[in-house]
Amino acid sequence: MKILVSVKRVVDHNVKVRVKSDGSGVDIANAKMSMNPFDEIAVEEAVRLKEKGVATEVIAVSCGVQQCQETLRTAMAIGADRAVLVQTDEELQPLAVARLLKALVDKEQPGLVVLGKQAIDDDANQTGQMLAALADLPQATFASKLEVADGKAKVTREVDGGLETISMPLPAVVTTDLRLNEPRYVTLPNIMKAKKKQLDTVKPEDLGVDVRPRLKTLKVTEPTKRSAGIKVPDVATLLQKLKTEAKVI
Amino acid sequence: MAALVIAEHDNASIKAATLNTVTAAAACGGDVHVLVAGANAGEAAKAASQIAGVAKVMHADGEQFAHGLAENVAAQVLAIAGNYGHILFPATASGKNVAPRVAAKLDVAQISDITKVDSADTFERPIYAGNAIATVQSSDAVKVITVRTTAFDPAAATGGSAGVETAGAVGDTGKSKFESCEIAKSDRPELTAAKIIVSGGRALGSSEKFQDVMTPLADKLGAAIGASRAAVDAGYAPNDLQVGQTGKIVAPQLYVACGISGAIQHLAGMKDSKVIVAINKDAEAPIFGVADYGLVDDLFTAVPELVSSLEATAK
Lengths: 249, 315
Fold this sequence. Notes:
Chain A is an alpha/beta fold and about 250 residues long. Chain A has 6 helices and 15 strands.
């Protein structure tokens, strides 16, 4: 069974982005870029399934600019066998990515597609569900546990109020939540090995997908800042302030 | 054209997130209809019909909706989607699960987690963990939207008198199957609807200490309990308590952060709270940058002292 994993190149989660003064977007020109943390969990899970003998091949996919190659090399250093870059300079929105992935699913026929539940840049939380809909596949989002056996996936999901377990026949789409696994550190020998792995590049046109954005960003602004209040010396003062000043208790 | 709100409910009643979503739907212009897709959900449909500002309730019933499986609920929404210009879901775990399926099938973009409706086609939404606000315009015929509930006031749960119409229930798609759930039963208010939240971080040190320190404070204040990602990852608190960018977004009247340093991902989930209190022994912790009242102290002495002071004043 093949597993397809999609990875997105995003501004590193430790970087605090700045809104451009002309309101056209956020300034990411010199920001450190990394693999979206949820996607890293997705790659790790796929690789573990291969190590367990459940999967035979893990294919990492990224959609975006040429530099996404670096992200794909990281995925291969974690253990993906090969990679596909769908290269474009166009701004890619979730529906476009889902349509690109659908085309690759048709081509590669994976038994399982694993994606991060959300990217930490646009915070959209859409692509996995959209792919499942377009490919007419069952979905299990926000996974915290995944078991694959006998042509089925049993997935524990993080939902409001607790956990829910569902099962679905393969092929299926799974999106990862934070507690599915803890991704391994990539080692230097594996980084070297990843450089030799196969990385194919295709264009959206090759897949017959129109990736033009549907949503137009009119402007990007700073959120209203919350300023620091005061320090109180002790519990008694805190309590008194909450009662008489803030009047919240 | 009317706007359709997909109700979040437990078959017997409507969950609070639905009320905020109704307010966002009304701001899109046009009538507001509510879809209740459930199993023996007559009571929930009746409750939905009483929400102020709702013109009509569509009720689809069947065992296939008992657990809100995404494939079945999405199919039901799609069955009636043609009548609507806007389809809105609360940005809860279930809304986020279903909405993109609907959008993709309709071949339209989804607008996630909106915090403001500027006009029928223009919306504001936070990006980069709330460090920037994007104003986006959709040219699609149908706007599929998830609503950040804390950004909209709840519609009144009573006062409306909408008619309830039965919608033909779509069949079971048979794609996925519900197996089991572990939903913590608690007498505490729901995290996303609570007026007061007390939240604990990694500094609590263990699940026992998390319980021992945070529970009395929550009890005393009638508060919900939250946690930082670090505390959840360490196993001190269950996943459904996580507040932050990828957890729950909350905006209570009072948020008390105990032993939480204040990573931007955590702040993204609570910085719209009315009053924020931070208790942390590290005076440099970023949480103090957003706190109205900061107390630099060891939480293991400060929190119990707070509890006993609250007890003393209650007498």
